[in-house]
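Final report, Chapter 2: Outcomes

The project's central promise was a pipeline that accepts a single protein chain and returns its three-dimensional structure in a standardized token representation, suitable for archiving and comparison. That pipeline is now operational. To close this chapter, we reproduce one record exactly as it appears in the project archive, with the input sequence first and the structure output second.
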Amino acid sequence: MSLPRRVYLDHAATSWPKPAVVLEAYQESCQELGVAAGRGAYRRAQEVDRGIDQVRSQVLRLVGASADDTVAWTSNGTMAIHGAIHSLLWQSDLSQVHVVSSVTEHNSVLRTLEDLHQRRGLAYSLVGCDARGWVDPRDVRLALRPDTALVVINHASNVTGVVQDIAGISEELSVHSRVFGKRTDEGIALMVDGAQSLGYVDFDMRNWGVDIVVSPGHKGLCGPFGVGMIVARAPMIQRMRSPWIGGTGRSSDSLEGPFGWRESIESGNINAPAIMAMGKGIEYVSSDSGRRVKVGFADWLSRLLDAIESHPSLRLVGYPKTGTDQLAKRVPIVSLVSDQYDSHEMAMMLDSVFGIECRSGLHCAGRIHKHIGSSVESGALRMSFGHTSSTSDVEAAVEGIQALGACI
């Protein structure tokens, strides 16, 4: 028995297929170079170092940072989040520190905060959201306290796709700092999780007043697994210290240091092949081909919305009834629920009959569901597009949705 066609609609989890230039760069790095970064003075080692520095510059441009800001590599997005939060907070008496985040966050953020609460007494507050998953900047300001040191917000929801008003949130933080008479260098740090937005929507770190951006490289940037990043503005480095340290490739006779924040975060061997391949992914999503695909996202989402809304037994999650007017403020994610089947059953039906691969469940974002009307037990069925999606994928998704609606 032959397997059905493969229709991949889970780009919010990871992009697939990877662009050919990404795979070629990864293979070349492994086969032709194959050396550790920052560990040698011979020609190929220097070539790897130059290649990684070029990708650092690409990332700085991508997020709207300046050349004096810092990019530190991690093994994935979760470690970037963990490393950034701990770098900012671990030197403090956390029983005297407060953090604000939101119910829309990934568990990489929420579990890190809860762990610090349980082990070290950190206080944190979670701001709610509306039915779209959108966080009102004014609600962030209302959650701030004199002892608030950090605000962590994801740029785009991995359940509804809605994009947050980061500049608006930053302005509310500035107002709060002025009220409490804090200097700029001791104000509240704003950290943004760009896991679902980088590569899909424009990002302007400096003009928006963002201090730290974290992201994996394997989603909207089309890189392979094994690379994440922390981008920190230059003034923040004075406030940060890595929670880990190991081999740095220099000063091997010293145990005390001093060691810089970036070199400490990058202790051990960084994933040079994945980093350089991600650099090609950034080039791809910024190219004419990548931009042409992004132009079609709004139309693709509209077609899925129409298909879902044509069946009374299916319900959109995170979209108002007039959902099409919100498409410009979203990344290409659609989530739905049914009156009869849970999300896991729908996902299995789509896979077995149509070869459609999409995500079911809570999507590692368990706090958002009671706010957007999806099940807190089974979550929602999520379809997500990427830079290598095609019109035929959309047509298959519409066909699958219509079949679900007809059999329920």
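Archive annotation: The first helix runs from residue 20 to 33.
This record, like all others produced under the grant, will remain available to the consortium after the project formally closes.
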